[in-house]
Amino acid sequence: MPPRDRKDKNDESQPTLQEIIDRLGRRAECDILVGEALPDRNFDNHTIIVSDRDTYYSVHRDHILEAEPVGPARFRFFIRPRSAIWRASRTNPDGSQYLLAMEMFEPPKMLLLPGDPDAGTAQDQQKLSAGRTIEGAAKVFSGACTGGDVYPNNCAHFLSNAFIQAGFAGLGSSHSCINARCSTSARRPIRAREMRCWFEAMAITTGGAVQRNTGFWAVFQLDESAYWGGHAVIIDSDNWKYYGTGWYSAWDQHSFQW
């Protein structure tokens, strides 16, 4: 039977030939992703599409024009042309840890709680001692990268810049902990989990939540249900000031001192 160009009165669910042609025309212009989907807890109104064990994508849900089943729990997604699609891949395929591009995802809004440290100011920094120490890094922290670039999340980016400026030159060159660096000539580390690895390599003393009057600490804060990438920061526990892009006291605390 030849295809009909209009619907049968008794089958309102059957598309017309023109509707099929129009749909296929729209699909031809789309980007296509195939995988399982779940809500993105980092980007509001985004959907995560997991294509395989090493790669996932984040797309604004309004930019997903169609989704057709291709197997159990898997779909073929047709994405609006020229949509922003974020891609995250595991960079150590022989290892067990996924190193996701969390610098591309904005962190949760910071909410300081009673008893939390205050952000250190330029006046506070003038009182600190310079040197190749955690205190020295706090003194030169500027909330910027020497290379001038900015990501949605810059906690590790700007903190690593301060440590390198304080004299920790090894962090600026090849290091087993660091896999991702900014794209400028400064080549600053940009992932908080990788900064934690470096903190661990440097540490003489480790702990949990920092207690007052115990000196300067490098701190990694983590709540995977809120933000998988975690947060890296410095605290001056003697003056109860932090140096970094924020402070998340409600998250698990991992502290390092050397």
Folded structure, characterized:
α3 packs across α4 (155-165). By secondary structure, the chain is of the alpha+beta class. The protein is elongated. Strands 4-5-1-2-3-6 form a 6-stranded antiparallel sheet, with no helix packed on it. Strands 7-11-10-9-12-8 form a 6-stranded mixed sheet. It is 18% helix and 28% strand. The protein has helices spanning 17-28, 122-126, 134-140, 155-165, 192-202, and strands at residues 31-39, 46-52, 55-60, 64-71, 74-79, 85-89, 118-119, 205-207, 216-223, 227-236, 241-243, 252-257. The longest helix has 12 residues, at 17-28. The protein has 2 domains: 17-89, no CATH class; 118-257, endopeptidase fold (from Nostoc punctiforme) (Alpha-Beta Complex), CATH 3.90.1720. The protein starts with 16 loop residues before the first helix and ends with a strand.
